[in-house]
Queue: 3 jobs
Job 1
Amino acid sequence: MSNTQIDPGADPSTLPTLAPGAVTPLAGPAPHAEPVYFEDMTVGRHFNTGSVTLDEGAMIAFAQAFDPQPMHTDPQAAARSIFGGLIGSGWYTAALTMRLVVGGEMRPDERGRIGLGIELLRWPTPTRPGDVLTAVIEILEARPSGSRPDRGIVKLRTLTYNQKREVMQELVANVLVPRRPVE
């Protein structure tokens, strides 16, 4: 994969896709799993996540608390909307994607990672109950921090897919990442 920017209006079919068999069951970080440090995040490297199935009740509960719009909370009203049925809040998709990332191949150590900002966040396809989401993280840029020698700054793109390999969310963000501890 090249180190290029994605046009926010790009056709999702031109975006990167998952390799066959890339989806793994969602589970928390395994106790034996090695954390991924700044030195492991080379430009062009990809990290996969597990998967999660969207439950209608959980989607509605999240939306009632955080994004109470009829297309997210009321199946009957949603059926009359431009979506023709209930859709998940984009913020629900974002929250689930974060959970997938933390539990996936790009596990943080106990110091965690600090989000520095989002350059792009879009939801080109709405999520629906029963969708199975998975994500792929691509390292776009990586450089040592100028002010924190124990950290690096990484720009990454996270694409969240459904079971049809449609892009449900695209996120480009900058993250402060711990360097490998010196022993």
Job 2
Amino acid sequence: MNTTCSLAYFILLSSITSKNINQNIMNTYKPLLLLFVIFLGTISCSDKNSLHNYFVNHAEKSGFSSTTLPVSLLRQKGLQFTPKQEDAINAIERINLLFYRYDPAKEAEFSTERNNVSTILKNEKYQELINLGTNGIIKYIGTDDAMDEIVVFLANKNNGFAVTRISGNNMTLEKFMELYKLTQQKDVPLNFNLGSITNMFTTN
């Protein structure tokens, strides 16, 4: 447990064991209060290692680039969509992307940051959806019928790594698979390909 979390536990536990609190109340509710404190402490400390916080803490860091992609990006260039593809696009609420450009002079940093993301995605709340082998992995939070968030993690030493977070709005597994097939088409602006993502940040 890190120093911040340890301090939080100490303060909360001190308040519970304070002599200023009615002793009868404490004798009755102390076990429940202790469990509640431990629960809050666990949630608070685990959130520090969330993917959301990783995005926030690294968005402006040297070597990183970040952007929020408009869903309208998928509708550019006069593309024609099937009804199922339309449903899939409409199920996207937000797309956030974080990119780390590989620098041979910073090999250790690349490995550390890539491993940090991998560790976060090992949390049991992230369920594996598609294993892309050495290229990366796609995971999601939620259920097949209600996918709250989809994470696409791509990495290689030619480009670096990219993490794409897709927030869903009535997103389902069926809809995402339609979206995934759509992004494999060369004429679609959003592509789950690290080379394409690298070009996106190079040209912007």
Job 3
Amino acid sequence: MRHAAFVACVAGVWLAASTAADADRTHHEHIAPHGGTLLVFGDEFAHLELVLDRETGALRAYVLDGEAERGVQIAQSSFVIDVAPRDRELFPVTLVAVENVLTGEVIGRSSEFAAQSDALVGLSRFDGRIAKLVIKGQRFHDIRFGFPEGNEARRPAASAPGDAHVHGPGGEGHDGQH
């Protein structure tokens, strides 16, 4: 009888440990390299980091790899974020690719995008939507998020290609012309 109790105890410990390990593999956190909000695309396929300067209304976006560690150059020259402040009308912000002689990035092969809008000055919270973004050949559509908290809660339990979700600040989801 003691042997059966021992086996049951060991099995319980093993099950708890494997469940915790599975949880760690399926949900881990990333740190935004520029201190912004990370949007996660697909099942950790790629990230987009948004950094807002509330004083100037400057918004930067960095396309990053699945671990949010390295830039990923994309072919788009721009993409639009529809910004819906919680107390004002929705407005579009067009982020344009940034050229950088130090990294060799050019329009059509850039991982950094920038915009400036007076409507972003002083804004600390908003709902956002990116209609379409293509990263490493994968098309992502209708990416919705809250800023700065992200939309982790909106993410489906199992990611399908094209799914996107968001991690908030500190790590806590357009292929052509416009």
